[in-house]
Structure to design on (583 residues):
């Protein structure tokens, strides 16, 4: 079994109602739910793997392939839709050269759609993990991406190099 | 007149427990410990408070049923799933005045005879989750939560539970199933959660905003509350303004405030020319500029043919194509239907296909009548509110903007150039 899972199981009760918090924790650690992780969760809670898979696929939060380093989500909820979220999505798909639901080949970005994240007064919004980018325009999409790409690049540079 | 945001709007107010106590926080809980639960219950009933989560069910009656149930343990569950697009009021309460909610839940526990509260909080609300987590610890330290609250024989604990992203889990019975680690699919009602709720035990389940009214009702009395706003659903309401409006945000106003006043005086007016308003989110029906005088309370909005729901007031100006917006609504419901019952599972999908067809120039006129019939069938036969109200927005758009739909179908084009062929 993958090691971080053992740690998670160690602090979890063997009760069916722990399934969703358990999957949330696994996803937080691994970045997604692998088949092996779901099987391990099923074994741990003494329920069939199909029950785990059924629950995992029911909820929007869970993903089954690793997300990008920046898991970008574009809100297509009604308030954001009214403020042009469709154009934001198109701009993002164009800039990243992937369709919603996919990850860039370098794994830096993944792109998903959500329906309202409770920031409707700031519509339209893009979310990157816990950061909300408010009042987006197609032009600002380019700016945000430039910023994140730069951050990514610098993140990999050894700190002391001239 | 503010009841819920009264603290938040004070200068220098923080979500900290000391701020809350300075403003008289936890006094209502203290007072509740000195009187009989039955007395508190009669005040809640007298207040005529109705649920703010969408269904407008009388809170006093709900708590009376839970109070009278004789099985233990009982549970107090707070619905903080806030998933209706355009709604962002509960988040404000939890992030800025978390103790208001905690105090209210403890009082509810005292009334119905429960020692365990659970907050089911939307997964994306990271900040609210952390703030509530800290608030619970602080309240426990000061003996407002935990064993023997303030030295009394009443004990009450609150647990946080993070949702995993499913709109239907805002529906109370789906929420309960989700809490039990299952797919969030609605249960058949009756039995209602007041008898058969969390782990099949009596449960009082309420929205964040509903609960946040309770401490003031305890302090000032039910009669005081019942005189605020519109008599049939008294109190205040948090309206979430979004869309084409100059000052989007959350506004707390007495129930019954006219829609025109909400948009003009508070929202700073519509951006551009008003076309339509959804007064209660995507589950409600569109209103137009002819209906702006409607009073924003539950019975009045219902009489105008729509619903106040959670209070998501979404404003749409004339740069938008109603067919496109209707299509977007159907996409949402088709995605979020839990699939448990056939009318909703199939109906939302077919509606989405029809609307997509209309926007792409392959629609048929007969679809417009079919959608109206489908709405009726889905209303009559769907298991929960999602399916029952899924086609409200679409059918009201067809009724009020029929020419736009006919034009898309006959001329196979969108005059505004929004729907792509
Ligand atoms: C599809 C659907 C979604 C709902 N979402 C929410 C929600 O996010 N928050 C909420 O409080 N109530 C929601 N409700 C209403 C709840 O079922 C329930 O009526 C409410 O939480 C009861 O609390 P109240 O009486 O305080 O309003 C939803 C209902 C349906 C049918
Ligand atoms: S109406 Fe829709 S969401 Fe509700 S139980 Fe039926 S399929 Fe599920
Ligand atoms: S609709 Fe986008 S945040 Fe609410």
């Amino acid at each position: 079994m993958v090691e971080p899972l053992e740690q998670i199981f160690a602090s979890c009760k063997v009760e069916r109602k722990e399934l969703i918090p358990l999957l949330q924790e696994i996803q937080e650690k691994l970045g997604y739910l692998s088949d092996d992780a779901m099987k391990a969760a099923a074994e741990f809670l003494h329920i069939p793997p199909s029950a785990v898979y059924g629950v995992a696929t029911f909820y929007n939060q869970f993903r089954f392939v690793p997300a990008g380093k920046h898991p970008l989500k574009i809100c297509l909820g009604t308030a954001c839709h009214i403020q042009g979220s469709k154009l934001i999505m198109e701009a993002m798909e164009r800039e990243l050269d992937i369709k919603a639901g996919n990850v860039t080949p370098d794994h830096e970005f993944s792109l998903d759609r959500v329906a309202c994240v409770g920031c409707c007064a700031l519509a339209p919004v893009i979310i990157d993990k816990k950061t909300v980018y408010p009042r987006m325009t197609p032009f600002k999409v380019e700016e945000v991406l430039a910023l994140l790409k730069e951050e990514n690049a610098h993140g990999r540079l050894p700190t002391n190099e001239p | 007149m503010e009841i819920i945001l009264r603290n938040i709007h004070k200068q220098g107010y923080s979500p900290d427990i000391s701020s809350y106590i300075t403003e008289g926080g936890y006094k209502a809980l203290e007072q509740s410990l000195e009187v009989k639960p039955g007395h508190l219950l009669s005040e809640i009933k007298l207040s005529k408070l109705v649920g703010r989560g969408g269904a407008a069910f009388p809170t006093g009656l709900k708590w009376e049923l839970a109070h009278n149930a004789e099985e233990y343990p009982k549970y107090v569950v707070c619905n903080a799933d806030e998933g209706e697009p355009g709604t962002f009021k509960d988040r404000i309460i939890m992030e800025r005045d978390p103790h208001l909610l905690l105090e209210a839940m403890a009082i509810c526990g005292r009334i119905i005879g429960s020692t365990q509260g659970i907050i089911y909080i939307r997964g994306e609300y990271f900040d609210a989750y952390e703030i509530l987590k800290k608030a619970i610890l602080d309240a426990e330290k000061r003996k407002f939560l935990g064993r023997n609250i303030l030295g009394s024989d009443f004990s009450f604990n609150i647990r946080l539970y993070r949702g995993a992203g499913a709109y239907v889990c805002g529906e109370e019975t789906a929420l309960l199933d989700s809490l039990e680690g299952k797919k969030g699919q609605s249960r058949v009602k009756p039995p209602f959660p007041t008898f058969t709720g969390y782990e099949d035990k009596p449960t009082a389940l309420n929205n964040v905003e509903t609960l946040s009214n309770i401490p003031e009702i305890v302090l000032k009395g039910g009669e005081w509350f019942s005189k605020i706003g519109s008599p049939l659903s008294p109190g205040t309401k948090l309206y979430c303004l979004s869309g084409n409006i100059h000052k989007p945000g959350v506004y707390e106003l007495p129930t019954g405030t006219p829609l025109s006043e909400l948009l003009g005086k508070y929202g700073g007016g519509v951006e551009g020319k008003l076309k339509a308003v959804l007064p209660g989110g995507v589950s409600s029906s569109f209103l137009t500029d002819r209906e702006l005088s409607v009073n924003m309370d539950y019975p009045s909005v219902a009489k105008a043919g729509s619903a106040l729901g959670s209070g998501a007031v979404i404003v749409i100006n004339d740069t938008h194509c109603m067919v496109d917006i209707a299509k977007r609504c159907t996409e949402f419901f088709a995605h979020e239907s839990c699939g448990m019952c056939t009318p909703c599972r199939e109906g939302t999908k077919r509606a989405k296909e029809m609307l997509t067809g209309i926007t792409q120039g392959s629609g048929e006129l007969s679809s417009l009548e079919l959608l109206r019939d489908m709405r009726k069938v889905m209303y009559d036969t769907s298991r929960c509110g999602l399916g029952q109200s899924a086609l409200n927005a679409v059918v009201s758009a067809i009724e009020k903007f029929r020419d736009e739909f006919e034009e898309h179908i006959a001329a196979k084009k969108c005059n505004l150039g929004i729907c792509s062929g």
About this structure: Chain B has three domains: 17-226, 236-317, 322-411. The pocket of FE2/S2 (inorganic) cluster (ligand 3) is lined by residues A 75, 77-80, 116-120, 123, 125; B 85-86 (CB under 6 Å). Chain B touches chain A through 50 residues (CB under 8 Å). The first helix of chain B runs from residue 17 to 22.
